[in-house]
Amino acid sequence: MTPSPRLPFFVYGTLRPGEHHHARTLAGRVARTTPATLPGFVLYEGPGYPYAVAGDGEVTGAVIEPAAARYAEVLRALDTLEGYTPGGTANLYERVTAEARPVGGGTETVWVYVAAPPLARRLRGRGTRIPSGDWLSRAR
Description:
The chain contains three helices and five strands. The chain is α+β, with helices and mostly antiparallel strands. It has a single domain, classed as Roll (Hypothetical upf0131 protein ytfp). It has a five-stranded antiparallel beta sheet with strand order 1-3-2-4-5. The protein is globular, with a radius of gyration of 14 Å.
C-alpha cells in the first residue's frame, strides 16, 4: 500500500478548535490552524456530529496542519476517530483529498473525512442538511 501524502486536514465538526474532539485529538499536536471553507460540499446532521457530502454548497471549518514530528500519530488518531480504514469496506467516513479555501485567499489541498458512499446516498435522500454549512452555527 502506498503511504498517504502528508497533507493538512480540513476539519468541520467536533474536531474544530474549541470542540471536544479537538481537545482530545489535536491539542498540542498542531503546528497551524487556519479558518477556511470547503467548496463543493454540503453538511448534514449526524448523531452529535456532522457529515460532509459532495454537493453544491460550501462547508465552514479550519485547515489544521499537524506538527511534523506528530503527523503519523495525528493521522492514526483521526482515522480511528472517524472510523476510517484505508481500503476498508465498512467505513463510516472516507478520507479524501479536496481543495480548501483558507481565509485570506488561495487554495490548499487537504485531507477531509466525508460520509462514505452508502451513507452519503442515505443522507442525500432523507438526511437533515445544515443550510449554513457551518456545524457551529446550526440551530441547537
